[in-house]
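Need tokens for this chain, all 128 residues.
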Amino acid sequence: MQTGFTTKCKLIRWLDGDTAEVEITRKVRVRLLDCWAPETKGVEKPLGLKAKEFVQEEYPEGTILYLHIPTEDSGEVSDLFTFGRVLGKLYDMDGNIIAEELRERKLAFATKEELHEFLESIHFPATH
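Here are the structure tokens for all 128 residues:
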């Protein structure tokens, strides 16, 4: 595991296929690193809902997970906050990385570019 902060957390809910709300000592929104799922609004909605349905079924509300927030060597996490969310990785109790499970099923992609390439390959308009 890379340098950073890792703690056990309780899954509160899935906001979409690549953003979860977890409880540590208080709720935080976690934007999964290396995971770009289609949005659950706009033209990508049908594909985004598939990703969200997968994570909701595999990891229902109340599931205990591990949250890892990577840091620089200095321990700073300030660069890892975006749109009111912390950037991090969620692992289940067996060590499976949720983002990898989404990517294996083609429900999410490692980069925004890969997501857009996929949407274009199926003639689905990508939002930029």
